[in-house]
Amino acid sequence: MNQRILKFTSWAILLSMFISHADSYDPLDPFGNVTIKWDVISWTADGYVALVTMFNFQMYRHFMSPGWTMTWGWAKKEVIWSMVGAQTTEQGDCSKFKGNVPHCCKRVPTVVDLLPGVPYNQQIANCCKGGVVASWGQDPGSAVSAFQVSVGLSGTTNKTVKLPTNFTLLGPGPGYTCGPAKVVPSTVYLTPDRRRKTQALMTWNVTCTYSQLLVSRHPSCCVSLSSFYNETITPCPKCSCGCHNKKDCIKPDSNKLKMRGINTPKKDNTPLLQCTHHMCPIRVHWHVKVNYKDYWRVKIAITNFNYRMNFTQWTLVAQHPNLNNVTQVFSFDYKPIVPYQSINDTAMFYGMKFYNDLLMEAGESGNVQTEILLKKDKDVFTFKQGWAFPRKIYFNGDECMLPPPDAYPILPNAAHQNFTPFSRFAAFLVLIVVTVSHFL
């Protein structure tokens, strides 16, 4: 009986591990993660000084304001004597210390990045950005955040130091799951003249992965579709982002919009949405605009329906088979994403710096748009069966809900897959001429 229970327990553990991994796995960014690296750079009388560096290796998911928050649990009775480039949100009970009081005595410290503009003696490289970290695909140089921490009441050698446990990462909300700290080969550094190598005394890594399901069981964005060859506009599915209470939204023509402070963010980051049938803070509209002989053109518009949120350094990821033949992108920056070297069907779009990299809150300025010119591959190109519409759309790393395929705009029965607006006009003229000649 005990063997059966043991076997069942083993299978349950394996199944839970598989489900957890599947939830955090992103097929468009299979190697995306956040790696937190601790480098012990010197020993002290009762502990060590470590350089903590966070690398955001996610291709299109970044940390927006108010930025990241990191916590961990000490393995012994460690304290933080001082920090450079970051701070803990609470000092904790340091009453047993006399004279020199630690920066933090909590068993589980909560660390945040410093804001820009702090004095230089409180800064180190890659710190003090208010916790805002770019995605690796958008800006690798800004996808790093770092701080220095002096730890006391700890071991003073590689064999006596105990690694911190139970790491958590918020960015700025939930969604990340962090694994245990693991000792890795010591980091090697180059001196400024690049003629000498030094290395950390000890290094350990923590890897964190993101799962959209940990944030919400509903998506945070949706997609609507339209085309030049069909007057039907396929809207976002109803309640795409969940059916909220009427108190959670405001009608576009409501007098409440004139109230002072309507656009002021709340401490708990609760959204204030415009009342729509989809109830999503973000809608992405994909419009098949023009069909040329050798090219076709798509227009993409992103609309913000949240009155309390500006989206900084936003990213849009689209998956479509013809994105391997992008000829020109207007008013957005563009970068192909090739997670699998033999397949090039995914692209990341983001705003141009100081032009449209800020998506404003709901209102007249709460949208950004672009047009994409794509070259046809005549062996596969078609407008039939919804081929011209995207397979997946992501906004800021979260997958958006698409309409069901049977609701897509379809070709008219007599339409040819390569007709253009000009050819339709020409056919109309021919019909008039034939009709008139028949009566003459």
TrEMBL record:
Q: Lineage in the entry?
A: Eukaryota, Viridiplantae, Streptophyta, Embryophyta, Tracheophyta
- Belongs to which family? Belongs to the COBRA family.
Q: Does the keyword Repeat apply?
A: no
Q: Which residues form the COBRA C-terminal domain?
A: 220-409
Record's protein name:
COBRA-like protein
> What span is annotated as the signal peptide, if there is one?
1-24
Q: Transferase as a keyword?
A: no
Q: Which organism is it from?
A: Salvia divinorum
Instruction: List cellular component terms (GO).
Output: plasma membrane; side of membrane
How this chain sits in the membrane, per its record, is: Lipid-anchor; GPI-anchor
Record's superkingdom?
Eukaryota
- Check the record and name the Pfam families matching this protein: COB_C, COBRA
Location in or out of the cell: Cell membrane
Q: Which UniProt keywords apply?
A: Glycoprotein, GPI-anchor, Lipoprotein, Membrane, Signal
Primary place of residence? membrane
